[in-house]
Structure formats: structure tokens, C-alpha cells
Amino acid sequence: MITRDECLAFDRDDALASLRGEFILDDSLIYLDGNSLGPVSKAVQTRVSETIDREWAQSLVRGWGEGWMEAPTRLGDRLAPLIGAQQGEVLVADSLTILLAKLIGGALDQRRDRHVVLTDAANFHSDIYIAEAMAKRAGRPVRVRAIDRARLDDELNEDVALVMLTHVDFRSGEMLDLQGITTKVHDVGALMLWDFAHSTGAVPLDVTGANVDFAAGCGYKYLNGGPGSPAFMYVRSSWQGILENPLCGWLGHARPFDFEPTYEPAKGMQAFVTSSPSIVAMAALEGALEIWDRVTIDQVRTKSLAMTDLFMTLVAQRQPGAFEVVTPLEHSIRGSQVALRHKEAYGIIQALIERKLIGDFRHPDICRFGFTPLYLRFVDVFDAVEHLVKVMDTNAYRDSRFAVRKSVT
Ligand SMILES: *Cc1c(COP(=O)(O)O)cnc(C)c1O
């Protein structure tokens, strides 16, 4: 049996322990939902108030000439090492679904003789919706096939233009084989787009080594950029100048201030900027990224696996109820969350939230717990499992108040 004292000892030995102090967290709360919305850090507060008080208040419109215009590429370069990209291959803009639209639309134009987009039936619904929307507008019949990803090999053929997969499954936490799948997709001449929503800032990524064509991810999950934070996109350098932005706008023009009536794309990632970047939101993300100057993704990964291992071990020891562990035990295919399946999952999560343990419910029957090494302690993992035991032992999850679901889960 692992004891609470042992967990406190793990925290004393944890090289990342001091980083928790950089975040603004309610100490009475156990926050296992940083995979949905990361907390705010002091660096974010500082960077945002500087941007408002100095840049916006004092520079006014001159701010565009004093660094605002470069924010999408500057932040992209700052984020690039986290996904194994080179400088000049990443852009920060818009939100994830919009960036997926740009990449899907652009990719479909590069494979005009092909008619299929393959994705995972278990993918996040927004990814599937936007793929269908772009397929309809491809200028030829294109079908989106949302398949069981275990059957990918059978579905890959010369009619597939693009494969779009989410690297870490948002429900189960299973992590897919970045390099192996990308290679298979290229073997049939198709293009590969990865969604890193649940990967960036959580697991090491090497888009260069895996020869990925395109990728995108969120700023507000493990990157802690704030609610509705701008997202990022990656376009391998060999595609730049070839891949076109299907949602082009003035700030992606080669000379936006010439006000020319005809569009001519800017060089590099700037071509994927459509319109004015949201500078205050960009400042929040820029502040949030500062922590990565002091910590490596390998350190984060080591602690993340130790935390998810600890959670699974404690659940196995304490046996809180009839839970099925959906997340893989094998490290090489596990992201940074643990999903437990239970038919009363919704009520269980609500009862946990009342006890100040925040996780989330994912339809239809998943209790999802995110483990974020920058600010979580091993003792939080221990206490979380004790809360789970209490909720199950007392039947708190059966309360009639949880019979009706809230609109946001
Ligand atoms: C969180 C998430 C999104 C959210 O997209 P937004 O456009 O930023 O709201 C999309 N896809 C996946 C896989 C996600 O996990």
C-alpha cells in the first residue's frame, strides 16, 4: 500500500515542485482538469498587464509597428521546440478548429486527384465537423470517412488525400504512434495532419523526426494560455510557399499596407495569418510559455508518467468501485490523463467537484482526470483517490441533484 507520507516524500524529491508557486491556485482545490483549461500563472498576469498598461495605453495604434504584428510568428517560434519544429514553421493564431480548417483546405488542394479524408470515429467532434465542412468546399467530391482507427491500414489507399488524427485520444488518453502512422500515410502518397490538443506541453513531440506534414493544437490546455487562448499550427518548411491558406486575409498578404485588390501570399508562416491577432490574448499565451525556458518536456513527461502510474496504482489498491481503467497501462501509448469508465460517471464527477476535486465527465460514461506536472503534487494524486473512495462509499454520486446534466460538462 502506498501511503500519504510516501506521496509527500515524492513531492520533496520532485525537481519540478517549486514551479507550483508560479501559478495562482486555490490550495483547497485539487485541479485534475488542466487538460481542459490550464490555470493562470503570475507570468501571465504580468505580461497581460504590461501589454495593457504600457503597450496598448501608451503606444496605441503604434503598437502594431512595435511588435504586435510579429506576435503570431514570434510566439510560434517560441512554441516550436515543444513540438520538435524548426524556427519559422509554427504560427500562433485563431482557435484550433479554425486552424484545422486552414490546414485541411490547403491539404485537399494539394491532392486534387484524391477523394477521401480519413479520420478517427472517436475523434473530437469539432475536428470531424470542420473536416466535413472543408470537404464540401473542395471543388470536387470529397468524402470524410470517420473510421475505427484500428482499421487504418485497411482504409489507406491511393484515393486518400489526407489523414487527420488526434495524437492523444481526448477520452481514453491513448497516445498514437506519431512516426509509424505518418510513414504509413506517406507510403500511399497521402498527407498527414496531427491534432496535438492533448499532446503539446504534455508529451515529447518530434514533428521533424516523424516527417509530419501539418499539425495544430490548443493554447489553453497544457500550455495554460487562458480561456479561448490562440491556437498554433505547424507547416513543415518544405510545404511553405506551396500550401495555400484557404481563408486568406489582408495580414497574410505580402504587402498588407499597399491595400492591393489582389491577394498575394506573404512568405513563410505569415501567409496563414488571416486577420488582426488578438494581442491581449497573445500576451497571456506568451507569458504562459515563459516557464518552458526553465523546464524541459522530458522532465514533465517523467513526472506525468509517475503521476498517472501512481493514480492507477492507488485506484487498484483502494478499489473505489466498479471502474474500468480505459487508459493504457503501457507508457509508450499513454498521454497525460487517466480515464475511468463507470455507468454513473456524470454523478461521480459532480460529487467530486462538490468535494473540490475537479475532473471532468466525457459523454457517455468517462470520468477523466488530467495530470499536469507543472503544478500538481503527488499528494494531490493521493488525496484525489481518497475523495473518489468517499464519493463511492457514501453513494454521494446518486444524489438526485445530479440527475439532470448541465450544458457544460
Ligand atoms: C480541445 C479540442 C478542440 C477545441 O477546439 P477549439 O476550436 O479551440 O475550441 C478541438 N479538437 C480537439 C481534439 C480538442 O481536444
Topology:
Blueprint: H1 4-12, E1 30-31, H2 42-59, H3 71-83, E2 90-93, H4 96-109, E3 116-120, H5 125-136, E4 143-147, H6 152-155, E5 160-166, H7 178-187, E6 191-195, E7 214-217, E8 231-235, H8 279-289, H9 297-318, E9 324-325, E10 337-341, H10 345-354, E11 357-358, E12 360-362, E13 366-370, H11 378-393
Parallel strand pairs: 1-11, 3-4, 3-5, 5-6, 6-7
Antiparallel strand pairs: 2-8, 7-8, 9-10, 10-13, 12-13
Helix pairs in contact: 1-11, 2-8, 3-8, 4-5, 9-11
Bound molecules: pyridoxal-5'-phosphate.
Word description of this protein:
By secondary structure, this protein is α/β, with parallel strands linked by helices. It has two domains: 4-16 and 296-402, Aspartate Aminotransferase, domain 1 (Alpha-Beta Complex); 46-293, Type I PLP-dependent aspartate aminotransferase-like (Major domain) (Aspartate Aminotransferase, domain 2), CATH 3.40.640.10. The protein has eleven helices and 13 strands. A seven-stranded mixed β-sheet has the order 2-8-7-6-5-3-4, sandwiched between helices. α1 (4-12) runs antiparallel to α11 and α3 packs parallel to α8.
Give a quick rundown of the structure.
This protein is an alpha/beta fold and 409 residues long.
For this entry, give a set of tags.
binds pyridoxal-5'-phosphate, 4-stranded antiparallel β-sheet, globular, 2 domains, alpha/beta, Aspartate Aminotransferase, domain 1, Aspartate Aminotransferase, domain 2, 11 helices, 7-stranded mixed β-sheet, about 35% helix, about 400 residues
